[in-house]
Amino acid sequence: MKTSKLFDGFNVFISRHLFPPHEFDTVLKAVEENGGQVHIGFDLSRNGENDYHIISCRQHYKFQDLKSKGCKMIGYRCVLQCAKEGRPLPRQAAFTCCLTMEAVKILAYGFDADQMVKIDELMIEMGGALHTTPSSDLNSVIVKNVWAPEYKWALNVLKKPIVSYEWLKQCSDEHQVVPQESYMFLPFSGLKICVTGIQADKRKEMEKLILQNGGKYSAELTKKCTHLISNISF
Q1: How many CA atoms lie within 13 A of 8 on its CB side?
Q2: Domain that holds residue 76
Q3: Residue 74 belongs to some domain of the structure
Q4: Cα(27)–Cα(81) distance, rounded to whole angstroms?
Q5: What average pLDDT does this structure show over 180-207?
Q6: Which residue ranges does UniProt annotate as crossing the membrane (predicted)?
Q7: Whole-structure pTM value
């Protein structure tokens, strides 16, 4: 029985082959009770503005087929959350898997164009939007390396968590905002540091500090080292 008109006017295609079968009845009930027009199965010819195909994730084997035909896709988690919170389905054409990042403001910096596209896609899939300019109301900053100017700004001025791309990917994989502790971008992240000309006890202490701050310690100077610390003047 329909109890609301949240999904009224939406043609929702539901197939047991496109998302976990054990969620089928729950999703079907959510769509029906909120006024959506249910179509069992999927139809590659249905790519109108109000046509939605429910699918599990971007990795599903049918995702590219539906995308190539211009079909609008939405994650079953997103459908259930919209029904639970009393809101209509997202209108955006891009795939929305869930709404994990809806209220999260992220800035990414230091990545090449292709990587930025991927980060933007992940944010959109989770209901968020990637910010392109620094602002004081950001939640987190994703950087590729500590040489990015925004890294120092985020660390010293914004004082917000600085995390790696892997954190965002893990949020996408788990469809929730995961703890950031394991993904924090520490000051020496991406650096390989060699120490020479310093007494053994001091060198051991410096090695500990380097590792604690995300860097790699090298006992020998090699081409892979990014920095050399020495008490010798050149």
Answers
A1: 6
A2: 11-85
A3: yes
A4: 10
A5: 89
A6: none
A7: 0.79
